[in-house]
Amino acid sequence: MTEVTGTVDFRVGKETYKTWYKVVGDLTSGIRPLVTLHGGPGMSHVYMQSHAEIFTKYNIPVVFYDQLGTGRSTHITDKGADFWTPELFIDELNNLLADLGIKDDFDLLGHSWGGMLAADYASAQQRPGLRRLVIANAAPSLNLWEQSMHHWLNKFPGDFREMLRRHERDGTTSSKEYQRGMKEFYNKHTCQVIPWPAELDQSFADMDENPTVYTTMFGTSEFNLTGSLITWDVTDRLDRISCPTLVCNGHEEGAQDFVVEPFIEKIPKVKWVKFKKTHIPFYEDKEYYFETIGAFLMPT
Q1: Displacement of CA 59 from its chain's centroid (Å)
Q2: Rounded mean pLDDT, 244-257
Q3: Where are the beta strands (DSSP E) in the chain?
Q4: Using CA atoms, how far apart are residues 107 and 171, in angstroms rounded to an integer?
């Protein structure tokens, strides 16, 4: 398997940062590449690495990268909410596409926050080079996501909910009790493969190492959204997404059916697929997931 890693310069104002990337496969092969957008915001690409399966099975080159502020890309801790915006990450994506020479012909797959970013990217304006779009386990508005997460949280015992909220009020979310509680919630509604794959643990560890992006854009947790994305909503422009789009979700996750419904109703050329279990189907329903993605990217 051919792998190439590197960095590209990403200029923001007077500052120049580094975006780290990895390409699995050959971008000069003539086969349209798949670009992946990881979740978070602030997780690293590591948990997405199983998408190299797309190259192994279908010979489609796959591009991974760490978004600014996490993983092997430049870490920044001295910027506020006016810096950490969806527009920043859209600019970073466009910069990477141009540097790799694929801006005129590529497919895009975003998972979780990456799916939100993908929906924002595709609906903000026409993207002639974007051929096919996959929005995986994501929401078209943060308000819908928060409603969904509270729905699942309310199914836990009252003392459990109060424990989480107490730590969030007191600013003690680094405590072992809170961390154990969040892991219990995540085991039910984020990934039901127990123990978690090492790659997923690593991406969470990368976010914990530098939580700037997550806390600035989201807030303390999925249940306490206080960040700059609190009013983020692209529902009213989803009809502008002109390329064929695959939307997928799971049964017990944040992207419940009512959350993804605007995608299904408003995107003109849309297909909806539902996977087993929760939020990370490429671990929980791996075979069917990659067959579905491959069939969508390579229609007969």
Answers
A1: 23
A2: 97
A3: 3-12, 15-24, 34-37, 62-65, 106-111, 130-136, 219-221, 224-225, 245-249, 270-274
A4: 41
